[in-house]
Amino acid sequence: MKSTVGVIGGGQLARMMIPPAISLGLTIKVLEEAQGMSAEIAATGVGDYRDLDTVLAFAKTVDVVTFDHEHVPQHVLHALVDAGIPVHPGPDALLYAQDKLLMRQKITELGLPSPDWAAISDADELGDFLDAHGGRAVVKTARGGYDGKGVRVVDDKNGADDWFTALAEDGRGGSLIVEELVDFVRELAQQVARRPSGEIVAYPVVETVQKGGVCAEVIAPAPTAAEPARAADGSASTVSEVARDIAVRVAEGVGVTGMLAVELFETRDGRVLVNELAMRPHNSGHWSIDGAVTSQFEQHLRAVLDLPLGSTRPRDPWSVMINVLGGPVGETLQDRYPAVTAAYPAAKLHGYGKESRPGRKVGHVTVSGAELDAVLADARAAAAFFEG
């Protein structure tokens, strides 16, 4: 069987693929963007993921190519496919993770529930949308935004003038996306894995908490996920069933291979709406390293190699993952490890090998157990101690 996986991108997602690759007896190689990145331990090359010659030379040393991020240009992805190199997910699927406007169009085409949205190219079009949606809306850039970047709430038609100017100066044209400001009660994330031969497995839907546009907490499974929700066809169902159905339809509809995360809004009137997509392991699934029979990182490797997929069953009734943001000034996470684990022995730390700076994800903590309140309290306390 194919046994060498190449990962483009040297961030923490690539880093967290290394332990399951070793357990599965695989060889994993990483093309990192610069020396000293999170996944340096498995880096076999340093180079620009936008440069075709660099990526092609790396890809020829592995059996299958996958990704730590979705920023590799389409012409590079297609060149790999044309050279006969298996790429998972493929360029035709990744397109919808790279471009939010194309994603919104595809989600609408698939008949899946979304916030009201429109493509806009000037302030007047933004003003028309604001007038029709209560005077406030969310504006997004089509490409490049993540962790709160490229997203802003506006209440004036001139609130995105700088972005319109940047589009005009870029010379390629294009549009921004404007979406209704959803009155949601919470944010959810649904992960599924799909292998090239078509097998799909789903993880429990989880609840996510964002701070400053960055994922701060994940509760798995999402509390009250068994309560009623409105399916896309208007029929009654549960939140977990609706979320799973949406993610499966996205995976099949765009041909995802590997892990897929669908970020969702649950609204006050019982709807579940698609927010964004990620076609790789995702922050909302980090709990699965310690909390599920098969972690999202092992599952991703299985999927891209077209191996039978593993059980997604939780090991405990509850798991809570808290991101460590910023980290202790003048110290490392490991400096604080003895004291934190002595106080919270159930806490599992995953450090990303990054230097601390305000707001930066430098690691995460997971705690699992039978009582949600106790698990949540311990996870928050342990993460706060690591943050300093």
Question: What characteristics describe this protein?
Answer:
388 residues; alpha+beta; Rossmann fold; D-amino Acid Aminotransferase, Chain A, domain 1; nine-stranded antiparallel beta sheet; four-stranded parallel beta sheet; 12 helices
Description of the structure:
By secondary structure, the protein is α+β, with helices and mostly antiparallel strands. It folds into three domains: 4-87, 3-Layer(aba) Sandwich (Rossmann fold), CATH 3.40.50; 116-180, 2-Layer Sandwich (Dna Ligase, domain 1); 184-387, ATP-grasp fold, B domain (D-amino Acid Aminotransferase, Chain A, domain 1), CATH 3.30.470. Helices cover 32% and strands 28% of the residues. It contains twelve helices and 19 strands. The protein has helices at residues 12-23, 52-59, 74-82, 91-98, 100-109, 123-132, 161-170, 239-254, 288-291, 296-304, 333-343, 372-387; strands at residues 4-8, 27-32, 43-46, 64-67, 117-120, 137-140, 151-154, 176-180, 184-194, 200-202, 206-211, 214-220, 228-230, 236-238, 258-267, 272-278, 318-325, 348-351, 361-369. The strands form four sheets. Strands 9, 10, 11, 12, 15, 16, 17, 18 and 19 form a nine-stranded antiparallel sheet that branches. It has a four-stranded parallel sheet with strand order 3-2-1-4, with helices on both faces. The chain has a four-stranded antiparallel sheet with strand order 5-8-6-7, with helices on both faces. Strand 11 and strand 12 (214-220) form a beta hairpin. The longest helix is centred in the middle third of the chain and has 16 residues, at 239-254. It catalyses: 5-amino-1-(5-phospho-beta-D-ribosyl)imidazole + hydrogencarbonate + ATP = 5-carboxyamino-1-(5-phospho-D-ribosyl)imidazole + ADP + phosphate + 2 H(+). This is N5-carboxyaminoimidazole ribonucleotide synthase.
